[in-house]
Automatic annotation (TrEMBL):
Transmembrane segments: 6-23, 35-52, 64-85, 97-113, 125-143
Keywords: Membrane, Transmembrane, Transmembrane helix
Protein name: Cytochrome c biogenesis protein CcdC
Pfam families: DUF1453 (PF07301)
Length: 161
């Protein structure tokens, strides 16, 4: 008999770590030209190989809805991620309580969807959630990078070519 408390505790720990990391990052300036903001996109790229699994039977509708849902979820993340130029001449992420609510809301929605879609094959469900994650992380990180670069250009730094 598997305890249902373990997944809930794991999710709470993950939420706490994400929020703790985000709050700590706000105290440190973003270094360099901002390309580190795009690193998660590289890491997400490895999961695309899961689509090559011949046991997956995803329909175009499922994939399209997952991607659209992910794009919708990216909007609050984009809106709550901003940067500021401080007196020391460095660019810092802006602290935002709305970001905390966006992350918690995102995780709650994913947990609700997981229980709602529990009838799907675990591999298919995992791939759909991966597609949702890609569809909200990619636009969020790209827009974050663009916001940072605009502020960097305003700061007067020459953008490296």
């Amino acid at each position: 008999m598997q305890s249902t408390a373990f997944p809930v505790i794991l999710v709470i720990v993950i939420i706490a770590l994400v929020l703790w990391r985000r709050m700590r990052a706000a105290a440190k300036p973003v270094k360099g030209s901002g390309y580190r903001l795009l690193l998660p996109l590289l890491f997400l790229g490895f999961g695309i190989f899961g689509l090559l699994n011949p046991e997956l039977h995803l329909t175009v509708k499922e994939v399209t809805l997952s991607l659209l849902f992910g794009l919708i979820l990216s909007v609050p993340m984009i809106m709550t991620t901003n940067y500021e130029l401080r007196e020391d001449g460095q660019i810092y992420p802006k602290k935002s309580k709305a970001f905390i609510f966006a992350v918690v809301g995102l995780i709650v929605i994913r947990l609700a969807l997981r229980s709602y879609l529990s009838g799907l094959d675990p591999a298919e469900l995992g791939m759909l959630f991966y597609l949702i994650a890609v569809a909200y992380v990619v636009p969020w990180r790209i827009v974050s990078f663009v916001k940072y670069r605009k502020l960097l250009a305003q700061q007067g730094n020459a953008l490296p070519q």
